[in-house]
Specification:
By secondary structure, the protein is of the alpha+beta class. The protein has one domain: Alpha-Beta Plaits. It contains 5 helices and 15 strands. A 5-stranded mixed β-sheet has the order 6-7-1-8-11, with no helix packed on it. A two-stranded antiparallel sheet has the order 2-5. A two-stranded antiparallel ribbon has the order 3-4. The termini are far apart. InterPro entries: DNA/RNA_pol_sf (IPR043502), RT_dom (IPR000477). It holds the Pfam family RVT_1.
Length: 234
């Protein structure tokens, strides 16, 4: 038995949300009229302008997208992709996990069975096109997890003519996972980050900078030590 995992990446996920589609989906959720009107007012009528080396571009309207940095934007994006797994036939027996713009599918493949993940990927790609979004073939990855050599790997996945890269490790929501289900890669990455922060702290001390340093190790909520280093001139 093996597990086939697919890590979907959308091109410019928050920027490509179509306002009309989003508002129609929101209406189907039977939200109050006042909230629906407020959301429409929040999305529509926005404009953007670029400043580069003192020069300003012309003002152009923002016809798609939810504003990044806004508290409500991740919720609106979740509404937009809420029906994604509905397009996947139940007989494929695929698990879908979504968190904001991160979307992961996995399936358990018993010995002698074949993977359904290519059909799932094709279905999701069709959903993306209908909803005016686009899958990022370069950043979308898959992983095969199996501890028995007798079970062959599934065929490579494709988005159109682009072959999806099969990886041994992948960072998902801050956690590094690998096809051996061991913690080695995650521990190595955490150690690198901690050493880098400790290096900055040592360099500040060698330079005789007046510092206020706070070192926090929070085991329940955080997996990395946080070092806050404030320097100022005397």
């Amino acid at each position: 038995m093996g597990v086939h995992a697919l890590f979907i990446d959308f091109c410019k996920a928050f920027d490509l949300v179509d306002h009309g589609l989003l508002l129609r989906k929101l209406a189907k959720m039977n939200v109050s009229k006042s909230f629906w009107l407020w959301t429409r007012s929040f999305l529509e009528g926005r404009s953007q302008q670029v400043k580069l080396r003192g020069a300003l571009s012309s003002i152009r309207p923002c016809l798609t997208g939810v504003p990044q940095g806004s508290v409500i934007s991740p919720t609106l994006f979740n509404v937009h992709v809420d029906d994604l797994e509905d397009c996947i036939p139940s007989y494929l027996d695929i698990n879908t996990h979504k968190y904001a713009d991160d979307c992961t599918q996995d399936e358990v493949i018993p010995y002698g069975s074949t993977s359904n993940m290519q059909e799932v990927l094709d279905t999701i790609n069709d959903w993306a096109l209908r909803n005016k979004m686009k899958l990022n073939a370069k950043k979308t990855k898959d992983m095969w997890i199996c501890f028995k050599a007798a079970i062959p790997e599934p065929p490579s996945l494709k988005i159109g003519d682009n072959t999806i890269e099969r990886v041994n490790t992948f960072k998902l929501l801050g956690l590094w996972i690998n096809d051996t289900l061991k913690w080695n890669n995650h521990i190595e990455e955490i150690t690198k980050k901690a050493n880098k922060r400790l290096f900055y702290l040592r360099e500040g001390r060698r330079a005789n900078l007046r510092t206020i340093t706070t070192l926090k190790f929070t085991t329940l909520k955080k997996t990395t030590p946080k070092i806050f280093l404030c320097t100022y001139n005397s």
